[in-house]
Every structure is written in structure tokens, then in C-alpha cells.
Amino acid sequence: MDSTVNPTLAHRDDAEIDEVDLTPVRTYWQMVRRRFLQNRLAVVAFILLAVMIALAIIVPTVTGDAYQKTSLLNPNGSPTTTAPLGYDDIGENTFLRLMKALQTSLFIGFAAVSIIFVVGVSIGSIAGYFGGWIDNVLMRLVDVVLSLPSLFLIIMLVAFFGTGNAWVIIFAIGLTSWTTAARLVRAAFLSLREADFVQAARALGAGRFRIITRHMLPSALAPILVACTLGVADSVVTEAALSFLGFGISPPEASLGNMMTNAINFMVRQPMLIIYPGVTLILIVLAASFLGDGLRDALDPRQRVEG
Amino acid sequence: MVTYVIRRVIQAIPILIGIAIISFLIVHLAPGSPIDKFRTPRVSTEQLNNLIRMYGLDKSIPEQFLSWISSFFQVWKTDNQGHFIAWGFSFTDGRPILEKVVERIPATMLLMGTALATTVVIAIPVGVLAAVKQYSIADKVITVLATVGYALPSYWLGIMLLYIFAIDLNLFPLYGMHTLGGSDDLPDLAWHMVLPVASLTIQSVAGWSRYMRASMLEVMRQDYIRTARAKGLPPSRVITKHALRNALIPIVTLLGLTIPTLLSGAVITEAIFGWPGLGNMGYQAVIDRDYPLVLAFVMIGGAMVILGNLIADILYAVVDPRIKY
Question: Which of A81, A118, B77, B165 is spaced 20 to 30 A from B184 at the CA atom?
Fold first, then answer.
């Protein structure tokens, strides 16, 4: 880390002016990458998530609708080369279902986080940039949404507007969970608003939109990135909870939640049916939380908490 | 302090109104009409129109909202039979919402209160141990367990507990608060509480012990701890008298934030274990589309969050004399 600071700058005087500092200058993102790669747990989490995303994209794309194919001659069949995890109670290929479920759940997670990101960043940056009454109104809105019992509200929205509809679930999660992102962006913007580089951009005649998106947002992104990583895991868990309560994605579509819910009935004879999706879900949550920790430490070394 | 509390309570009013508007709009936008369940071939259009007039559904949305919200806050109002009418009547059994809610509170408070107590009792020593013996094997084991406990989704944990302890080992009951037809005595109640309390506790201990550990580590770095050590105090005294008391300050805030959940309950845990509390009732209300009950539940939940923030801030000032309002 110390190599990134140019030590000669601190006490440069005329006598030393000829000495050229040869330490390579690192950009912020190069430093971030270096710090991130030093955190082994976070790298492992990143690789794990990347593998899961790759599997979730590739396997269902290649095999198509095979995950819905039932075979009543082969219920609870044992593993074969084409079905490494065996078959479920109606002879569906558990491995293919698990991959499709991973795809559905991750899609819901990332789509919900996209909404959180867009809504949170827009509201946070407008509130933080303009301040005054606009800030006041928007922050009261944040207070209201923050005070809503969010899980219950999500259950309510999904139950009323479309049980089992992935988009309803995505919007229900997204529209109730953007407040943290908005607060983080606003806080960053309040401190950035009077920063020299923002003043400079203003003096050069940059428009408000350009100042917000090009100059201020990149400096405010670090905490949002962490919040979004954790948001993906939260959304995946919420989808599964909805399935459990009977409002989630319904079969023959596959999601981690409905696989687990369906497997409850066969828990005694076929415990692995609930273990596979459960462990997958836990791995997503663990990977996201370690990745989030790693990102936080890498993006902002000052925030580092000891231990 | 008193003026601060009054100011906060006044600030809470617009937030509550905002919650009311949002939940009212959601219920209004929901497809279908509250009178749909009366639409059978034997009910005439005229009767349906009478129902629409009776429920005030022919008025404009702002008018409906105002009549609902104004009656909502007149909690004390009763009809001539002594029933509380302020929150309306349930669509499913026609009973006053307020009475339905109130009779569910004891079960929820009992469950959540016990879970909170066991959480505090377990998490604080565990967090302190992890902090005092930082990087030891005990600390690492605690860290791993806490991370896994945090990652376990609540329903998965609940189902697993049910599967292992209620079905496989047949040690605890599957469902409810009392044995049907059995005695309502304390051992029976405690026996029914073990699994739901365990399920809630395992999850919150994970988070709480991490907070406690971080808070303790923060305090242990302070100069006054070094001073206490330097003047020769025994380590146990330094930890309990000097470090722990200060490390508990952020935990007290957490406690304040948690207290309201004593009332609003845990929807998922109560649903899994068939606990007859408020959370379970809210869940049932959504399934039955019992709109007045759903609205009441959202309002209670919102009020509890606001109350929790207020309690947290007040407790913070109470335990930390450096903070003044």
C-alpha cells in the first residue's frame, strides 16, 4: 500500500527536484483491484459466484425445457451420468432443475437489485445534489418506505398483484428495498457537493445532469456497490421465502424457493431434495456477503473494521 | 429530553400518514373488489349496489381514504354492543379488527420476548469471548458459526428444526401453542415454545454476537482500557467493569430497534410453527384478502418501526451520558 504513495512529494525542495520518482502511479481502480485480490476469502467468493452465474446461464440454455420433463416411471431415481443429482418425486432431473432454479433465483436477485440501484441512486443523488426542500421531501419519502414492514409489504404486493409472477416479485422487492442505496448516495453527494472538482466542473460550465452522472456519481459508487452485492443475496432469500409462503414462482417453473418448498413433503424419504437447493441458497448468501465485505475493504480502506 | 420526545412523536405523524397512503393505495390498486365474494348467481345487481353504497365504495378514493384514516385513529370508539369499531371488521369472520389484533398480542409478545431474552443471554458472552480472545480458535469457530447462522434463511432453519426435532426425533410438537384438548399449563406451553424460540434465537444470535464482538474490539483499543490495565487491575475486572459496560452502548441501541418486533412478530417463523400470533394472522389476512386486517397490520408494523427508532435514540441517551438531546 505504501508504494502507492509518492514519498518524495512530501518534502520536495529545490535540491531534490532532479530526482525523478519512478514508483508507478496507480489509479484508484488499480489499487482497488490489488487490495481486493489480497483478500483470499473475497476472491474465492467472487469465483464461486462467477461459476454459479456461468452454470445458471449455460446449463439451462443448452438443455432447454428438459428440466420440466417428468418421467413417472422413474420417480426418485438414483443418480446417472445425465442426472448427477438423481430424480425428484415426479421423475424430473434434479440437477437440471437446480440449474434452472439457480437461473431464476439469480435473475430475480439481479433484476431486483437493478431496480434498487436505479431508484436508490436517482433519489439519493437528486436529494443530495439539490438539497433544500427537494431533499426534505425525498428524505421523508425514504422515512416512510423505511418504516413500512418490508417483508409483509412484499408478501402483500405479490399476493395481490400476481402470485408466482417473477416480475411482480422483482418489483415488489425493488420498490421496498431502495432506501439504503438512496441514503448512501445522498450522504456521499452532500459531502461531494462542495468538493473542489465539482466546483471546477461547475465553473467550466458543465450542466447539472453531467455533473451528477459524470463527476459525482463515480465517487459515490463504492458504498452502493457493496449494498447491491448484499441486495442480490437478500432478494434471492426473499424469493425463496415467498415460495415457502405460497406466493413464489410455481412449478413447473423452477426456483430455489419452490424446489425447497416442494421437497418438504418428501423430506423423510428424500432429504437430499431439500438439501441441494438449500445449500445452493446458503452458498449464494455466503458468497455475496464475503464478496461485499471484500469490496468494502477494497473500495474504501478507511472503512476497514478490524477483525 | 421531554421536548425531544415530543418533537419526535410529532415528526412521526406525517410518516404514519405516508404509510397509510401507500398501504391504502396498494389495497385499492389490487385487482378485484371487496364485494367480489358476494357475487353469486343468487345475489341481484341491486343488492350488490346496496353493498357498494353500504361500504362506501361508491365514493371517490380520497373520500374513502379520509373516512378510513379518521376512524383508524379513533381507537376508543365502540358500537352499541361494546365492540371496538375503529379499525373496521374482518372480512372473514366479521369480528372487530381491533379485538382480533389485541387478543393475538400476548402470544406474539411471549414468543418474541423469550427469543429476545435468550438471544441477549447467549450473544453477549459469546461476542465478548470472541473479542477478548481475538483470532483464537474459539473466535474463529464463533465467526464461522455466526456467518452460517446469518446465511441460513429463516424458513429453511425452521423446517430443518421441525424435521429433525419434531418428526425424526419426535421430541417437540409440530404446531401451535398448546396441546389440543390438553391442559394449558406452563410445561406444555414451554414445550411448544422450544422450537420457534430456537429458530428465532439462532438467527439473531448470529447478528448480535458479531455486533457485540465489533463493539468490544472497538472499546478494547481505547486508552482508558490501557490505563486500567497499566494500573494493575486484574484482566477480568478490566473486561467486565471497564470494557463491557461501554461496549454495551451500541447493543442497547440494537435492543431498542428490536423491541417493536415484540409486537409485530415474525411472519415466517410464526407461519412455520403455527404460532397463534400477530405475524401469523397478518399472513392469513393476506391469503384471505382480508383488507381491513391487512391495513391494520401494515399500520401496526409501521408504527412499531417508528417507535423502535425512538426507543433506540432514547435508550442511547440514557446509557451514554455523553449524548444529550
Answer: B165
